[in-house]
Structure formats: structure tokens, C-alpha cells
Amino acid sequence: MAKHKTPLLDELEKGPWPSFVSDIKLEAEKRAKNDAGLDFQIPQDCPDDLLGVLELAYKDKETHWKHGGIVGVFGYGGGVIGRYCDQPEKFPGVAHFHTVRVNQPAGKYYNTEYLRGVMDIWDLRGSGLTNMHGSTGDIVLLGTTTPQLEEIFHELTHNLNTDLGGSGSNLRTPADCLGQSRCEFACYDTQAICHALTNDYQDELHRPAFPYKFKFKFDGCPNGCVASIARSDFSVIGTWKDDIRIDQDRVKAYVAGEFKPNAGAHSGRDWGKFDIVAEVVNRCPTKCMSYEDGKLSIDTSNCTRCMHCLNVMPAALKIGLETGATILCGAKAPILDGAQMASMLVPFIPVEEPYDEIKEVIENIWDWWMEEGKNRERLGETMKRQGFQKLLEVTNTKAIPQHVKAPRANPYIFFKEDEVPGGWKHDEKGYRERHMR
Amino acid sequence: MAFISSGYNPSKPMEDRITDIGPRSFEDFYPPVIKKNKGKWDYHEILKPGVLVHVAESGDKVFTVRCGTCRLMSVSLLREACEIADKYCGGHLRFTTRNNIEFMVTDEKTMEAMIADLESRKHAGGSFKFPIGGTGAGISNIIHTQGWVHCHTPATDASGPVKCVMDEMFEYFQSMKLPAMLRISLACCLNMCGAVHCSDIGIVGIHRKPPIVETEIIDNICEVPLAVAACPTGAIKPTKVEVEGKKVNSVIVNPERCMYCGNCYTMCPAMPLASGQGDGIVLMVGGKVSNRISMPMFSKVVVAYIPNEPPRWPTLTKTIKHIVEVYAKEAKKYERLGEWAERIGWEKFFEVCGLEFSHHCIDDFRDPAYYTWRQSSQFKFTSHVE
Questions:
Q1: For chain A, what percent of residues have pLDDT higher than 70?
Q2: Which of A18, A279, A306 lies nearest to residue B69, judging by beta carbons?
Q3: Which of A120, A184, B275, B318 has its CA 20 to 30 A from that of A328?
Q4: Mean pLDDT within A101-112
Q5: What is the C-alpha separation between B315 and B355, in angstroms, rounded?
């Protein structure tokens, strides 16, 4: 028998999509039965009370969580999001409902033994509810009490060799696409660099030392499967410098209908027979492709590596062999100054262990932004305030046309004094000798 | 309930403390076929909705079955996923960047048995536990946030609206009949955690009333200058007010300048602004993050306000369904929603989608707003021109 009546939430058990309400109810029942005989360390009816408080929110159309909450573990300045219910008498099971961010393995591959290890801790010491995963990438353990935080952290580190993720004004948990593990487009090992840099910058991740939050994300190619260009301050996107490799026999196979275009992504509808000219050559953004006498050719010097032709013909077209990555900076959501996508800073950089070239860019940016960034100012906003030129300067990057979509349209141009013959000092007397008042 | 120690000693908190070990290595968790063929994949094919095969240069194949989840998951459901992975996949599984689960196998017979098993698992209320889909030119999972389940600043819920929209869009999750992939995201406030600013369709919770100022407590619980600096429109200024005959420091909010972003409340607990009456949803369309054909795009506001209608959000789901159907009918193959809208022109987009255009959709935020107006005599005559 459920603890609270939830007529509104019950409506969300209908329909085909997995119902979070059904799932939470199951967990509530399971805890009530407690077949494993656990001595639950937080209220047994925590999921019941979560449904209760959520039903109240559905009735009021307002959240019932108090503002903020500052909790954590010794040694760290982040990793736990404190939360308290604003109706603790009605819903004592969620009076404390803190979230623990747990650092996920790169690419989010798991084995069942490990996941069960996490679940066993969470069954006993938490609500039994999770988010798989948070938007930044963490495993999110949803709902526990303050006294359990150190216990959970002790078990995570001692038994599962796993650390907390980031929160607050620091480096947040980095994330990546699945990269070379299961994709023919990956231009570098996204998982390896994601893991390496997460480890290299543990201090910056666990102990807030920045003006505001800072995120890394690693995309293996310009398709952006982890959306680094929109969702990270420091976005690394795989690319290549040389020719797209063309297997002409397989091009013929596509034209003959032996391979499905776009790997069959459009097979739910009849789009007609594959037309290589209409679907590939004419859709190329730079029109650098041609198809003549059954042969496909690409003018590499005019290709912007948008991925379209490779996406349409993955078996016939391959990324080049001289691979690396493009670095873009400053993506952020709207608050305060407006949303930003990341802007291109380094057109091509090799991605090879120990990643010294990339780390140099990161650390140069941090040295500048930690000193100059205002309180709660994202890197993207510091760039807007101090200018893109400043970012070039601090990263020792030479300005090139690739840095802009278009050159400036206004002539309000700053020059450095040493660029101007004679500097900024005027010979006032000489001026008046030439020009009478 | 008796307290069970993990071994942590609260009287010597720093003793035996392990820190800065980071995540577990991804290499600990690779299925053997992935470990063997990493970096040597030749090509892939989508066999049917939700089912992929990757072929390695060695000839090895890995079959992937992708299943939807509601992201908010119980340990019991995760254990069920683990049972499936043990039974068919040698104990391996992974999660995608859109919070789907992927099960990988190396032969088709096992794959078919697993698919039959996954399709048979349902909740008591009838919803699928592991619906298969989310590949190719369809609608995959909705990136979303905490909503009323955990957050203190939301203007709408996350899990509820997502469930309603996905129920409505379910046929598109399990098919591949759109012109291109269509990404839907939801954020429950303007902080826009996640991907609403760069999705084909973005659902964002918004407020419509300026914050309350709790004068009697504000100076004790807020860093007033931070609340002042939190405002994008300069609507907040510090002031002194009299409370019970005593002068106290507070702030004053200019309601004409406030556009209810809630950032002051993020910084200052004495400035709440949630309102069951006022809050609701703004609908954005036309964003993308990939560089395919066109550059990445931001999503744009096309519906300035849809009321919160728990538990099923009918207006929201109806509006989204309608936009998707018009896009499916009108757009060219490979054309993302934003590319289609830009090709036909936004005036045409509003007309063919039957969406009402209101002044709220015209940008008025600082200097860049100018660049969104139309500096041209090029436009199409639509029903909007009287």
C-alpha cells in the first residue's frame, strides 16, 4: 500500500515510454518488503516521500525544495549537491535529499560487477534512485542524508576505487563520445585523453579555485556526439589534415544499392533510389566534390571536413590518416550575457599521450582566466569582455583568418602603441607649428 | 535503524582518507570485441531501428541494441539491466550521451533472443522498461534536467513533461522516417543545464513574475552585491528599508527591467520567484551541434509561453507533435529542422506550422538583438501581412 495518494503522478504510468513513476513505485515497494534484510541507513520510505512531495509540486505547480544546501566531504570543496525539502514534517523521508556525483568511466562502458558494487552502496546508504547520467556525465546518486556522505565516499574510494565528480566553481567532470571504441569516424582516442586529463587535473576538479565552473568535453569528430561545441568551455573536436580516403569500389556499391546510404538511417521512409549527386555532391557545403564516369573525387584543399559525405557513405569514405583535433573555447548557456557556442582557437593540434600540447593551451587559459575572470564569469564571457585577441595572446596563438566567420565590420580598431611609428606621444609644439590654432 | 559504519572514523576524519583517484579506467569495462578492434572499425550499418552493427577491419562484428530509459532510474531497474547484460552480453553494457542503454553482442542469434527478451519487459502500468530504438533519422531520448524532483530553481518539471512528449513521439523513437535526426531537450529553468540551446526542439521552463524580496531576512542570508551583479538587465539595486522601525539593507527590483530569469534567486535565497500561476514553458526550435553541412546553430524561441499543465502537459505535447509532423512533411532528406526553417524563411516556418507569432519572439537583449531583425527588403508574403 503506497504511503501517499498520487492521482496526478499515476497518470504518468500510462503510455509506452518508460515510466519513472512506475519505477520509483517499484523501488518503494522493494524497500518496504526488504527481502535482503538491509538495515537501511536513510528512511526506508524515502522513495514514497519523494513521490509524495512530487505530487504536491504537481498540485501547486511549484518546486518544494529549499534553496541551495552546502554539504560535502572533508578534503573536497564539491561533488555533493545538498538539498532539503521545504515540507519536512509531511515528507520526513526526503527532509535531506542530497545528490552525490560519482565520476563515470570515459565512454560510460561498465561491467555488471562494478554497477552492482555502486548499487549495493546506494541501496544501503541512499534512496535507491539514480540518474544515469547527469548532463555533464556523472553517475548521479539521487537522495541521501548528511551523515551518510562520508560513509558513501569511504566505500566508493576504498571498495570501488572510484572518486566523486565535480561541482561548484571548478573543473567539472570531463566527458567524451565513445570515440575509437566503437566508431570508424573517431580521429583520436577520446576516452584516453578524457581519462588522462581527468586524472591530471584532480585537484582543480575537487577543490574550487576558479572564478566559475569550467568544463572539458572531447568529441572524436565534427559530428559532436558529446556536444562539446555547445556544452564545454574547452571543446576538443577530432579532425584530419590530409585527403579523405575513397574506396571507389564501395562508392560503386552504394550507387548500385548494395550499401544503404547513411548506414540505413532513413530506411523508415521511401526516399527513392540513392542519388550520389543529389545526396552527396550537391549537398557538400563547399561544392568541392565531383562524380564523373562512376568516379568520386574530392578537392581536399576546399573541404571543411563537415562529415556529411562520410556520414552518407561510411563504408566508402574514410577520415584522413593525419589526424588530430581542433580546440574551441567558451561555450556556455545564456546566463548572464547570452548563450555561446565555442569559438575556434587552435585549428589543428596533435592528440598524443601525454597530451602536453593540449595541456599547455589549457593551463595558459587557466592562468589568464583565474587572474582576470570576474566572480561567476564563464570563460566565454571573459573572452567577450577582454576580446578574442587577448585569448590569442595568452595562448601564444597567431591570429589567422580561420579564427573568424567574418572580419569585423566596424573600424573601432585598437593598435598597440609599439605598432605605431613614434608611439602615442605627440609633438604638440611641432603640431602647432604646422597647424595654426 | 542502526548506524552501520563503512570504516570511516569521524573522530579522525583525515585518517586513511583516499582522494584524487578519479574515475575507473574505461579499459576495465570493455567487452572483448571492443577491446580487440578499438580504432580499427571499418564501417557500420543500422539494421533496424535501435539496432546497429559495426564491422571491424578484422571482419569481427559487434551488434548494438539501444534502449530508451527515463534517466531517473532505480537500483532495481539498473540491476535488471545488469541481469540482461549477464545473460546475453558477458556482463557488459554502456550508456549513451543521451542516456540510452546499449547492450552489445557478437552474434545475431543472441541478438534476436535479447531483443525478444527486452521487448517483453514492461512495468505494471504498461510502459516498456527497455524500448528499442533511438537510431538514425528519428527521435532519440530527451536530454533533460532535475525539475521538481530535486532542484530549487525550476519553472517546470523535467521527468513529467519528458515522459509525456516521449509517449507522444514514441513512434518516431522506434522508426527512422524523418528527414534527419531530431533532437529534443528540456531544461526546467533559464540556466539551461543540458542542451536546449542547441537542439532541434528545446523545452525551457520560464517564470513571468519578478521575484519577491524578503526584506526582513535578505541582509542576513544573502551577499547583496552578488544578487545585484547576478542581474543581466541591471534591474536590481541595493537600498535601505525600514523593518519594524529598524533600518536594514535590502534590494529593490525594478519590475520594468526584470525578465524573470531567476539568477538573483540562484544567488540569494531571499528572492524567490516560482509561481504556479505565472510559470510555464517556452518552446525553441532549430538548434544543432553537429558541423554536418551547416555550422552549429542555436535554437530560437517560437512559442513564448505554454502553461504548465501537469500531469500530462497536453498543449506542450500537441504543439511539439505538430511541429514534427510539418517538418517531416516539408523538409528535404538530410535537412535538420533549423536548416529547413532557415531555407524557407522564419515567416514561412510560422505559417506552415500554424504557430502564432508574438512580439515576445523578437530579440531585445542588448546590442546583438539588432542582428536578428531584418535588414533587407527580402521577405515572403504570408498570412501575417495584412
A1: 100
A2: A18
A3: A184
A4: 98
A5: 12
| Count of other CB atoms within 10 angstroms of residue A436 | 5
The vertex-B364 CA angle with B359 and B367, nearest 5°, equals 155
- Phi and psi, residue B4, nearest 5°: -110, 120
- Give the single-character DSSP code of B179: S
d(CA A330, CA A339): 10
Substitution target in B148, B223, B306 with the highest count of A β-carbons within 10 Å is B148
Q: Is B25 helix (H, G, I), strand (E, B) or coil?
A: coil
pLDDT digits (tens, 9 = 90+) for B295-345: 999 999 999 999 999 999 999 999 999 999 999 999 999 999 999 999 999
Q: Determine the average pLDDT of the residues in B101-125.
A: 98
**What pLDDT sits at residue B375?**
98
Cβ contact (<8 Å) for B291 and A224?
A: yes
Report the C-alpha gap between A391 and B219 in whole angstroms.
38
Rounded CA Rg of chain A:
28
Do A154 and A161 touch, CB atoms closer than 8 A?
A: no
Query: Which of B236, B323, B329, B326 lies closest to B285, judged by CA?
Result: B323
C-alpha cell at B229: 551583479
Is the Cβ–Cβ distance between A174 and A197 less than 8 Å? yes
- Report whether B114 contacts B88 (CB < 8 A): yes
**Is the confidence at residue A1, as pLDDT, over 70?**
no
Q: How far apart are CA B290 and CA B338, in angstroms?
A: 12
Q: CA of B171: which chain A residue's CA is closest?
A: A16
Among A106, A330, A361, which residue's Cα sits nearest to residue A234? A330
Task: State residue B1's pLDDT score.
Answer: 79
